[in-house]
Each structure stands twice: as C-alpha cells, then as structure tokens.
Amino acid sequence: QESHAWSGRFSEPVSELVKKYTASIDFDKRLAEFDIEGSLAHAAMLNKAGVLSDDDVAAIRRGMAEILDDIRAGRLEWSVDLEDVHMNVERRLTDKIGDAGKRLHTGRSRNDQVATDIRLWLRAQIDAIVGFIAELQTSLLELAEKHADTVMPGFTHLQVAQPVTFGHHMLAYVEMLARDAERMSDCRKRVNRLPLGAAALAGTTFPIDRHYTAQLLGFDDVCHNSLDAVSDRDFAIEFTAAASLVMVHLSRLSEELILWMSPRVGFIDIADRFCTGSSIMPQKKNPDVPELVRGKSGRVVGHLIALVTLMKAQPLAYNKDNQEDKEPLFDTVDTLIDTLRIYADMMRGVTVKPEAMRAAVLQGFATATDLADYLVKKGLPFRDSHEVVALSVRYAEGRGVDLADLSLEELQQFSKLIEQDIYQVLTPEGSLAQRDHVGGTAPNQVRAQIARHKARLAG
Ligand code: ARG
C-alpha cells in the first residue's frame, strides 16, 4: 500500500473496488514520456521564475532521466495505489531525489498537467498520421498510374453509369485522403496550445511564465482561460471526428474492394497475405482485411460518440469524467495508424483485371450519355436527345446487344442526325477521351492529377 498525496484529509482508505475503478494507470502510463517532458519544462520555468533553485532543477532532471531509463527498460513498477501516471512518476522521482521531487508540483495541478500531456501526445500522433496518410496516397497513386487508361464502369446506384478509368477511381480516394490530411493538420493547430499554468482551475499564485513553458514544449500559444484550459477536450473530439472521416473513407474503399473481389464481379484480386480461407469451405478466399477495416470504422465512430457524450453535460471546470477521454482517444489513434499502414501495403497487393472491367462496361449501355451529347452537338435539344437515346437503348436491349453493336440504319431509325462518326463516341475509349477537362476521367487528365498529387506529396 502506497499512501496517497492527499491521505491526511481522509480517515479511511478507499475500497479495493473503488481503487481499481478510479485508477487510470493501466492506460495512462502510455503518457509517461510526455508527462516527464511537461514536468521538465514546468521545472525549468519555475527555476527561471525564481521558485525552484538550480539544485532542485538539476536533481529533477537527473531523477527524470533515470525514470525515463527505467520506463524504457521496462523496470518501472506502476502502482495502482498511486492512481495515475502523474502520481506514479512524481512518487518515483521523490523516491530517487527526495524533497526536490516534492517541490515539482508547485504551481500546477494534475488537471492542467493531464491536459498538457494529452496534447503533447496527440500532437506527436497527428504528425505520424499525416505521414501514414501520405504513404497510403503514394500507394494509391502507383496503382492509378498503372491504370490511367484502364476502362471500368463508373456506377451510380450501383448500376453501370458511364465509363471511367480505374486510375480515376483511385484518384477519388487520393482526394478524400488529401482532405483528411488537411483536417489533421488543421486540428493540430488547436491541439498545440498550452494548458499548463491553469493549475487546478483558476491559475496560480506563483509568478509563472506560461509563454516560456509553451516555448520549451513547442506549443504555438497558451490557452488563455484557465477554466477552459483544464476542462475542454474539444481538441480530442475534433481529432476523433477527423479520424472517423478517414475510417469512413477507407470503409467505402473496403466495401468496393470486397465487391470487386467477389467472383460475381471479378474486377480485382487481393494478394493472399491480406485474405484468409475458411475452416470448412476449401475453395474460399475471403477479403478479411477490408472487411475488418469496414468493421473498425464503426469502432472509431463509436469513440467519437463516446467523447462527445462524455463532454456534453460537464459543468466547468475539471471533472473526473475527463479521465474517460483516454481509452477512446488511444484506441482511435491505434486503430487508425494500423489501418493506414496495412492499407498502404494492401493496395500494392491489388491485381486489376482489365478484361473483366471492360466486359462490364460493354454490358450496361455505359455510353448512352455520349450518344445523347453527340446529338446535342448536332443541334438537338438535350431533352429530345435524351428521349432518342432512351428508345435506342430499349431497342438494343431487346436485341441483346450494346449501342455500339447497332448498325447505322438501326440507329438512324431514332434520329437522322446520327452519322458514321457516332462509332467514335460509342466505344468506352471514345467516351473517356471526350471528358477532357480538369477533374474529368480522360486518361491525360488522370495523368495530370497524378502528377499534381505527386508534386504535392514531394513538396
Ligand atoms: N487521471 C486524471 C485524468 O485523467 C488526472 C487528473 C486528475 N485530477 C483530479 N482532480 N482528480 O483526468
């Protein structure tokens, strides 16, 4: 039994159940290195302010260095009696250096301390995540480049709509991920402000220099209201919302990979190392990784809901509720990073089957809009042209052929404006080539977008 910092106030210890219920050390020990970083900056600031002596700060630095070694070597024994990472570290420090360790907590509270730790930790995670998003984008760009000309059906309502290229389809996800990275970087600005100095809730009586602490810790600014500094976790909610969107984007891609890999569709294959077999059906190869990503997106969205709900009815300032912010936040980061890493690797293991994609385009009257646009260019109003094409499609469907398989005479039954040059626009390649503007699916536009993204990622 290690006694609490506040034991003098209490006449009996908490029960074992309460101790376990209120302790966070099992999960917040993960913040230890950031807790130490924050403490060292706080100590340096107190020293500059004349509150801590040079000797005390030197002892604190020495003790913390040892603790860091102990943590990294797995030697530090975390005690549930000491409740959380902050009191564990402080007690170990005091065990090592005596009174100087006891002076460290001058002018601060665990309330501003924990808010600082989470922000330092999350900032580092965001930087890693932005890097992993870029790696996934690079992997998608490789695939897009290989298939800048590969025809596939574009769908709306999961019905064949118009031809696109597989490269264009991959670039849609590169765009989503670019916005995801932007959201992460933007969120980082609001994460990167210093709560320390708010102390418990009202600030402190010591002559602290918060800007100095902020500078030491690489924060862009301080939180300007002490009540707000210790009580809000909006930055964590914002991060988890941005993480949820990444997961939602990858869940959509997963859904497509699963569909495309179904033998009924057969557009792609996924390397064996991302799939598993069945314990009963010998023929099976299941797309487990995309299915799990789709499943784990629900888990991250759940964490977002947990954090929003955690926050919504808390009066100012700090409440112990906030201790519950950590597990959802940690799990969001772990799930997101694992997903991004495995995805970058998995997309390199995707084999595209161009013949199957092309065959699907030829089955769905995918160039009907091209026929309509052709007639408009010959002077027919779009609504009339739409009707001409609808009748042509109905006719071709009755014959069981594609529009491009109809003879000129057959097509001319529907409009005399149709001439021999129609066959250039009725092929999938003709259809693609005509969508030649920024954001369009023409292969040279797809290549231009690939180049733009590559330059962006290199810069
Ligand atoms: N373990 C606590 C948390 O995660 C640290 C702050 C505790 N402060 C308090 N007054 N009980 O929020």
Explain this structure.
The structure is a single chain. The strands form 3 sheets. A two-stranded antiparallel ribbon has the order 1-2. It has helices at residues 16-22, 25-28, 32-48, 54-72, 85-97, 99-103, 110-146, 166-191, 210-217, 226-231, 234-261, 288-312, 326-348, 354-363, 368-377, 382-399, 408-412, 422-426, 428-434, 443-458; strands spanning 151-156, 159-165, 193-194, 221-222, 268-270, 350-352. Helix 7 packs parallel to helix 13 (326-348), helix 7 (110-146) runs antiparallel to helix 20 and helix 11 (234-261) packs antiparallel against helix 12 (288-312). It is mainly α and 459 residues long. The protein folds into 3 domains: 13-106, Fumarase/aspartase (N-terminal domain) (Fumarase C, Chain B, domain 1); 111-206 and 219-358, Fumarase/aspartase (Central domain) (Fumarase C, Chain A, domain 2, Up-down Bundle); 364-450, Fumarase/aspartase (C-terminal domain) (Ribonucleotide Reductase Protein R1, domain 1), CATH 1.10.40. The longest helix is centred in the N-terminal third of the chain and has 37 residues, at 110-146. Helix content is 63%, strand content 5%. The site of arginine has 10 residues, from helix 7.
Helix content: 55-70%
Report the structural category: mainly alpha
List the bound ligands: arginine
Uncertain residue segments: none
3D shape: elongated
Q: What Rg do the Cα atoms give?
A: 30 Å
Would you tell me the overall average pLDDT?
96
Q: SSE string, helix = H, strand = E?
A: HHHHHHHEEHEHEHHEHHEHHHHHHH
- How large a portion of the residues is in β-strands, by DSSP E? 5-15%
And the CATH topology of the largest domain? Fumarase C, Chain A, domain 2
